[in-house]
Amino acid sequence: MPDDLTTAQRPTPRSAFAEVAPEGFFERPGVIRLRDPGHRPKTLLRGRFTPVWSAAVAGVLGVAPPEKPGIPARSPVADVLWLGPDEWLVLGIGPGCRSCIGLGSLAPALLRAGLAAAEVGDGLPDLELSGPRAREVLAGGTALDLHPSAFPAGRATRTRLGRIGVLLQRVEDGGNGPVFRLHVERPWAGHLWSWLADAALDHPSNDESFPR
User: Fold this and answer.
1) At 23, which helix (H) or strand (E)?
2) Taking a C-beta distance cutoff of 8 angstroms, is the pair 210, 204 a contact?
3) 165-172 contacts: CB < 8 A, separation 24 or more?
4) 56 pLDDT above the threshold of 50
5) Per residue in 19-55, pLDDT tens?
């Protein structure tokens, strides 16, 4: 045991998808891929949007939070997603959030700046959904219009998928179809993974080893 406990690293959090996907990966070729991207610092930020408040946030994160839904704000430290008029989700990205903020958490630095923030990383795990028919699979469980003209890359919104509340983020559009991130409360994580894997079976695969 280290003599100085303040220098001890936090234990690696157990994946929220470990029970249903021990390997952290699922693929139905030609349809979708599911991937557990692992732990990522996440902080819920609340406040009344004013120039002073926005400047304080930018002083910590390197970018002002977005004022309305749409494309998230991005800096070398974090992505900032608009959730509501007074609520944002701050997602740590890359090694910068660890070296600049410390311990992989963005909340302490925001709190030191006098901002209302709470770390939610392990309580709001996310999974990555991609593949040529990812949009079709999602469309089977939500009334949200996922066409690129209505929900372009970068957009994020709260919705229901089946009976599960999720924060759905369209990260990018690649050569093999769109890439989505689905953020979900931890108790529902395994259920969400299973729902998506089961929904993929309703679509034909281009691999004959997989059933219709």
Assistant:
1) none
2) no
3) 166/192, 167/81, 167/83, 167/89, 167/124, 168/138, 168/142, 168/144, 169/72, 169/81, 170/146, 171/128
4) yes
5) 888 888 999 999 999 999 888 889 999 999 999 999 9
Distance CA 51, CA 160 (A): 33
Q: Which residue has the tokens 């406040």?
A: 47
Three-class SS state of 59: helix
Task: Kindly report the backbone phi and psi dihedral angles of residue 56, in degrees, each rounded to the nearest multiple of 5, phi listed first.
Answer: -65, -40
Supply the pTM of this predicted model: 0.81
Q: How far is CA 93 from CA 105, 167, 199, in A?
A: 11, 18, 30
Tell me the torsion sign for CA atoms 203, 34, 107, 55: negative
Q: Is the pLDDT of residue 99 over 80?
A: no
Residue keyed to tokens 């959030």: 97
Q: How many CB atoms lie within 10 A of CB 145?
A: 9
